[in-house]
Amino acid sequence: MSADDFLLDAGIRHQIFVQRYAGGQVKELLGYLRDMVADVERKLIEAQTLPEAQRLTRQLQEIQAIIDDGLERMSNGLLESTADLAEYEAEFAVRTLNTAATVEATLPRSEILRALVTTKPMELQVGNATQQLTIDQAARTYSQKKAGELRRVIQTGFVEGATVDDLTRKVMQVSKRQQAQAEALVRTSINHISSEARHETHLANSDILQGEEFVAVLDNRTTVGCAALDGKIFGFEEGPTTPRHWNCRSVRVPVLDDRFRESGLVGTRASKGSDFTGQVSAKRTYGGWLRDQSASFQDQVLGEKRGKLFRQGGLSLDKFTDDSGRQYSLDELKLLEPVAFERAGV
User: Fold this and answer.
1) Of 10, 27, 140, 219, which residue is most buried, by most CB within 10 angstroms?
2) For the stretch 321-336, what's the b/e string if a residue is b when 16 or more beta carbons lie within 10 angstroms of its beta carbon?
3) Tens digit of pLDDT for each residue in 131-167?
4) Which parts of 292-337 fold into alpha helices (H)?
5) Half-sphere exposure of 280 (CA within 13 A, CB side)
6) 239: alpha, beta or left, given left = phi > 0 and alpha = psi -120 to 50?
7) Handedness of CA 14, 15, 17, 18 (dihedral sign)
8) Cα 58-63-65 angle, rounded to 5 deg
9) Alpha-carbon distance 196 to 122, whole Å?
């Protein structure tokens, strides 16, 4: 197979490492939140023995300080880990390019890579809107909002005279929701900085590259928008970036210019389908792969009506979205593809 297949294989396999690294960071950084909640619980227990309003106010201030410190530590840890990761990811991109190409690749400067944390915004699809914010902004916003949310719960409980048990239970409920949101923040931020560091490396080596190929994960957790983009090649400043949405696992990998391709390299990609889990050809796109899955698996990915349009209406995956990967509603799709609806009986 070609050098591009090797780069695709290397990029997909490396994305598994990125996801595992993100999992480790989730475990470490969410530890700050768990410690913070435990400290708050201890302070709440102390508060039940405080009869004087002045001492109760002081206790609340101490709790607020604990909350602010815990969330600040988590945010700072995320910023530090993503800055370090940026340098590692650029070095990985250079190593793979050096293997696949007949010329030596260029490594961007360290200060450029580390600055991506505060200068390069994520562009995340949230419904029909696009949310733009840097990792730094996302981390600070999360800390401020979540600190305020916990403070309001505790202040309201104190004012209303809630029991310590009731207040502790409310804090735990809010904290559990916040931890799920923190996990999405960490995973998405790590995928973003990984993608941007490699993208910066690709830009530094644009003289030997054609562009970047969008690659989605071959399983039933992938969104229709990412699946429809799988295999498409974009210019460096064209097409959707990765991650496309919160918790996105997609990635863009480099495509070499024909003049610089090393020969004799091989590549595959992992898949997790309805009947087979393992490696398939690196040339396999999500749409072609999905055609080989069972009807029930296709419906898990697309939904029942879109599954019928895919099987019986003759629609390819890219017909379900616009060029940016935004999924059309069924009403929009019916206006665009009325014949497919007739064929599928939808």
Assistant:
1) 10
2) beeebbbbeeeebeee
3) 999 998 998 888 888 888 888 888 788 777 777 778 8
4) 295-302, 304-311, 330-336
5) 18
6) left
7) positive
8) 95
9) 9
